[in-house]
From TrEMBL:
NCBIfam families: thioredoxin. Keywords: Disulfide bond, Electron transport, Redox-active center, Transport. It comes from Rhodococcus indonesiensis. This is Thioredoxin. Belongs to the thioredoxin family. Participates in various redox reactions through the reversible oxidation of its active center dithiol to a disulfide and catalyzes dithiol-disulfide exchange reactions. It comes from the Bacteria. Residues 1-105 form the Thioredoxin domain. The lineage of its organism: Bacteria, Bacillati, Actinomycetota, Actinomycetes, Mycobacteriales.
Length: 124
């Protein structure tokens, strides 16, 4: 599966409508972003069951601001609509593969329970 370009209009529906979504926040002028692009594209081919999406921070400035992007590239990973990873910097191919394995291995029942506990504690 090829990478998908995300905009503010389809960001939320993409995150909520897919089990795992990896998002690469990038810009065309960014050297590390251009270097990471083939690694991300190759990963999208190797993992057709995972949405690999890209957000151009130049054209999607409001979305980048909402995501609190301060450095690019920044990689975010969502599982079942929950942000489970966010880190600036290009990842080597092996590190991206390791990250995908960790995301797939997450016990999402436990993650959702922790989120519910945090919400309950904040409301108390």
């Amino acid at each position: 599966m090829a990478t998908k370009n995300l905009t503010l209009a389809d960001f939320e529906s993409t995150i909520l409508g897919n089990d795992i979504v990896l998002v690469d926040f990038w810009a065309s002028w960014c050297g590390p972003c251009r270097a990471f692009a083939p690694v991300f594209e190759k990963s999208s081919q190797a993992h057709p069951d995972i949405v690999h999406a890209k957000v151009d921070t130049e054209t999607e400035q409001q979305l980048a601001a909402m995501a609190d992007i301060r450095s690019i590239p920044t990689i975010m990973a969502f599982r079942e609509g929950v942000l489970v990873f966010a880190q600036p910097g290009a990842l080597p191919a092996a590190a991206l593969e390791d990250l995908i394995g960790q995301i797939e291995a997450l016990d999402m029942t436990e993650v959702h329970a922790r989120i519910a506990d945090q919400k309950a504690a904040a409301g108390a």
